[in-house]
Amino acid sequence: AMRAHEDGDANDVKFVGDLVPMVCEQVEGPRLWLGDSAFCDLTQPQHYTANEGDHFLVRYHPKTPFFQDKKRKQRKGKDDRGRNFVEKWGYLGSPNNKRRRYVRMICVERPGEKPLILVTDLLDADAYPAEDLLWLYAERWGIEQVFQKVTEVFGLKRLIGGSPKACIFQFAFCLLLYNMLQVIRGYLAEAQDVEPEEISTEKLFDDMEQQLIAWNVMFDSEVTLAYFASPPKLPELQERLRALLGGTWSDVWLKSPPQEHRGTTPKKHARTHNSVYRILEAHTRRKPKRTARSP
Q1: Residue 117 has what pLDDT?
Q2: Are 85 and 109 in contact (CB under 8 A)?
């Protein structure tokens, strides 16, 4: 699901309450909600657990204090990378806050870096081992990779319009194309008995783009709409994709071996981007200067 706003720099946190019901309509429960430290407060857990059986796992932020339960014994262990971690139980939020929650905290030591601290309402450490939750949270990095891939593969250096709504439309359309690419890449990988990560998204899209252009040249929009007016059911679609893509392959689609980067380390620069929405809003509020009349 997606919850967009014309202000590209708007805080995502305030949209969680709108987004959760949208996700629940598409994904059957129970659900486990993951979030970074920006979502560690006492408001978001109310959204995450609004439906029975749903839980949350978020990175801790000290803006919301944690009060350890001294009566409950800590547990120690090592994650799959050999790092030490400690599990604690206690309350997220001050004693005088009615929304405070009893949670489980997992603190991972990271030599040379700040500790990784997660909080969750999955209190049973035997049923939900810390090692599994730490692995799951690490999978969040895939979100950042998606944003990078979308920018690189679909050439977002050029925009289809200068308005905020045009930017949102282009980004949403690129996310749709990205999902389509992952489906195609998955079927190709299955047929070739390779991991999907071995197939280059960029190279695959180059050929996919040419076929989309060819379709657009050969058929007008009315024919296309009529052709897809009644999409097949999921099992039929899966069978069709396996039949079409099972015998389709090009070695060009394989990723190139990683190459050594010998460039210089880029210098850090101050923030240079801004929200189009805020720029236009500021321009609207600005009073036009009066031009002095000639005598």
Answers
A1: 98
A2: yes
